[in-house]
Amino acid sequence: MLRIGLTGGIGAGKSTVAKELAALGAVIVDGDKIAREVVEPGTPGLAALVEAFGDDILAEDGSLNRPALAAIAFSDDESRAKLNAITHPLVGARSAELIEAAGPDAVIVQDIPLLVENKVAPMFHLVIIVWVDEQERIRRLVGSRGMAEDDARARIAAQATDEQRRAVADVWLENTGTEEQTRAAVRALWAERIAPFAANVAAHRPAEGAPLLDDPAYGERLTNRLWVALGAKASAVTADGAAATVVLADGVEEPAVTDVLADAGFAPVGAGEYRGSDPGRAVTVRVRAHDSAK
């Protein structure tokens, strides 16, 4: 299974990218759609929101009045944190159900608006950021969604900055042209990177001829991904760019982590050596036993 995190600022056009990925065969797990589902009338989620924010967030028919909730929840950090504490666990649980049902060979694309803010990027083999500059996003939100400009600016200000998004981006997809140009870029990304990456992970094989990229932020991303994959099986993980060293925990032998690393996108190529399965980036991981690190 290849897991991709898809995100971008509100109004950036993630839905266009997600639709094209779905047409190409990906299973889309849409965070916004699930967020609406878990607070439908009669759900524990909606009851929890009413208890936290009051009856004024309900429409006349008993459904959630989203603009009313947004006016309260995005007014300050405390209210936003309260909203997130209610909805995020519900969205996470439902997402896990959909991923489990997709099967082991699926390409899962999780469309997560707050992927950067919630620091979940290391969970994914690949993170795609859809980008449009702030002024264009405001224009889209006001013109296409009918959002007041002040509300649009407040929503944008509450999300991650472009710099924070760049730090976690494996793919920076600029959605500044026509819709067809964006869809064409997604098709090329699928053919050149996503589909072969998924096939390599399924076969536990490294990518051949992957380029070594100049990406100063990648070392931290690689370190975090390895920690997420290995957990307590590692005692130390360090990375210098796209070259990482893993020191296993005391008592853990390399065979115990070989499949774990391969599933995470780092295929074995020899004793203690692994290479990335991503055809878009050359990566090397070396694994050492605990005693040999002394």
Automatic annotation (TrEMBL):
Function in brief: Catalyzes the phosphorylation of the 3'-hydroxyl group of dephosphocoenzyme A to form coenzyme A.
Annotated organism of origin: Tsukamurella pulmonis
Name of the gene this protein is made from: coaE
Compartment(s): Cytoplasm
GO CC aspect terms: cytoplasm
UniProt record similarity statement: Belongs to the CoaE family.
Position of the signal peptide: none
Metabolic or biological pathway: Cofactor biosynthesis; coenzyme A biosynthesis; CoA from (R)-pantothenate: step 5/5
Keywords recorded for this protein, A-Z: ATP-binding, Coenzyme A biosynthesis, Cytoplasm, Kinase, Nucleotide-binding, Transferase
Gene3D superfamilies referenced in this protein's UniProt entry, alphabetically: P-loop containing nucleotide triphosphate hydrolases
Principal location listed in the UniProt entry: cytoplasm
Listed name of the protein: Dephospho-CoA kinase
Keyword Kinase: yes
